[in-house]
Write a structure and sequence with these properties.
The structure is a homodimer.
Chain A (H helix, E strand, L loop, with lengths): L1 H21 L3 H12 L5 H8 L3 H13 L3 E5 L7 E5 L1 H25 L1 H14 L15 H4 L2
Helix pairs in contact in A: 1-5, 2-4, 2-5
The structure holds a DNA duplex.
Chain lengths: 148, 148
DNA sequence: GCATATATGTCAACATGGCTGACTTAAAAT
DNA sequence: ATTTTAAGTCAGCCATGTTGACATATATGC
């Protein structure tokens, strides 16, 4: 428990500081990250990942759209949906924000060795609620292709 | 990065829900947890772990003291200090809150196996800032014994 | 085709837990 | 005697979560 607290504290500290320069917070980072990983994701799928209310998401998402980091386009199969994607600017910001975290992980992996990384992934996956484990590490299937 | 997000999200969800019944939040949990792990810790050491301002800490700490979960007593060597300890009530709440997390970790450990756990600990430790790694897993040395 | 359900968004109000800045008190250190 | 340190307080701000109520467009089902 202690390990996880410290790790999360240090894992988020530097991106948080960078985000502050844009007037953004950690919530913006999460949205950018998951939209980047799942181009074309729907609002409701994003809500399901973040587990926040749509009112909370709306605040940060509309800011990101307004400032040109994310675009919305209607779904072709279901035109109620607004599929989300990063703009070039969004991709750039994502890259910048994650760089620190990637480097931090890369260092930790290098020091610990491949076998330890394997164990790390196993345990961390085991901490996640069983229902959500299958979707980790894979992009959310596009609703476009999912049918209804 | 994704793994860590999901794991932390699910790791904190249930304690958060329990805390809400007491009118407490995650910040209270952190204080209770670290005071429980480090009986007699000083306010400034606690601030150093949590990395928040004393004004932020004060809000939750004084609530916990007022409601009888934590006691303060002056340091014997340095009487400016207020050493923090859980009351019986505090211990009980800590136990309750952490039970979920301990069980979750125990399940993950059991499924992953001892070797994976070893790797998990190595990698997570590597994620933590180097400067703080030594103190993880050990109680903070009491200032009483540390001298000044 | 009409009724209902769904995807998304919006307004308003509130709570939690961060923050800064300014200032106080008591005790320790020099 | 002066300065530094440990702790606390007051006030106000900001980010990000919440609930509840309601609006709009589109899809779906009978």
């Amino acid at each position: 428990m202690e390990l996880l607290f410290y790790a999360y504290r240090d894992f988020t500290a530097e991106p948080d500081a960078m985000l502050a320069k844009y007037g953004f917070g950690r919530a913006h980072h999460r949205v950018i990250y998951f939209v980047g990983r799942n181009p074309g994701i729907t609002v409701s799928d994003l809500l399901g990942i973040l587990r926040i209310t749509k009112q909370s998401l709306s605040r940060v998402l509309s800011q990101l759209v307004r400032e040109g980091f994310i675009t919305q386009r209607p779904g072709s199969r279901d035109r109620r949906q607004r599929l989300l994607e990063l703009t070039n600017r969004g991709v750039e910001l994502e890259r910048q924000l994650s760089q620190n975290q990637r480097e931090r992980l890369a260092r930790a992996y290098r020091q610990a060795g491949a076998e330890a990384v394997e164990g790390f992934r196993k345990v961390v996956t085991g901490i996640i609620n069983e229902i959500d484990r299958p979707k980790v590490g894979r992009p959310i299937p596009l609703r476009e292709a999912r049918g209804r």
